[in-house]
Target: Succinate dehydrogenase iron-sulfur subunit
Amino acid sequence: MTATLEATDAAPAVGEVPSFDVTLRIERYDPDAADPKPYWQEFTVRAHGTDRLLDALHSIKWDQDGSLTFRRSCAHGVCGSDAMRINGRNRLACKTLLKDLNPEKVITVEPIKGLPVEKDLIVDMEPFFASYREVMPFLMTTGNAPTRERLQSAAQRERYDDTTKCILCAACTTSCPVFWSDGQYFGPAAIVNAHRFIFDSRDEGGQQRLEILNDKEGVWRCRTTFNCTEACPRGIQVTQAIAEVKRAILTRTI
Model:
């Protein structure tokens, strides 16, 4: 099925950014349908090159098909809720400009892989967050609460700075072929968030987390394909962080 917005052929005014038609091919799924099988549906919208894919999805939902379902919140690449597969790659819809997707061709949009699809582009994130919780992603200390902040040097903070940037969008984990085929693998995002605390000089639970990640479904399932690093919208060196956790397990030094 193809839906098309009426477009004008009038020349743009001076200083006006020209618009064009762009077609999105979206994988749809409705669990309440009489025949609940995934199918593809195309929509054509009028857009500008500087529009985001999220803008195009909004145009479809608001003007063409209100049943189209997807997650979004902040729309500025902070909440991580609108991760999806765009032209075969995991991206955030709010950070993906149409001009960077070759809009002269049909743009494909699918839900991220490896997690159960609930409806259209929305997946069940619970398996992802279950792995996240299992690595205990919080500061672990002993003794009484301090009367002032726990101090650390700039060098100590730098040690884990990169992995503090994670927004839990699941783009890295759901780009991993091992995660697609092995539902028990912790996945890159859980390891990244464990890294953030393992190498925090104020934390006292590093060895405990290393034991958890030393499991057969932990860091050793990583095959170093770098899909996770390429998919991260925050530029985190995910594969490097996993390698550092592996090294810490082998050397027992943090």
Notes: The mean pLDDT is 93.
